[in-house]
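Reply to dn_fold:

You asked what the input looked like. This is it:
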Amino acid sequence: MTQNVERRPEAGRSKESTAFTVLSVAGGVLAAICVVSGVAMLLLKAAGQHVIPLLSQIPLLLLPVAFILLIVALLVAVRRRRLG
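and this is what came back:
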C-alpha cells in the first residue's frame, strides 16, 4: 500500500534558491544581449554599413561576465543539491 504524502510549499524561498534564480536570469539576459549585439554587428558588416565600436565591445565585455554568472549559478545548484 502506498502512502499519500502531501508536500507543502515552503512559506519563503531559501537564500540559495533566490541566489540561483537571480544568477541564472542575470547570466541568461547578459548572454542574450551579447548574442543579439554580435548578430547585429555581423549583419551591419555584411550590409557594408559602419559598425559603431560599442556594438563590437558589448560581447567582448559582457559574455565573460555572463559565463561567470552561469558557472556560479551551477555551483550554487550543486551545493544546494548536496546539502539536501
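The helical segments are 15-46, 53-83.
Hope that clears it up.
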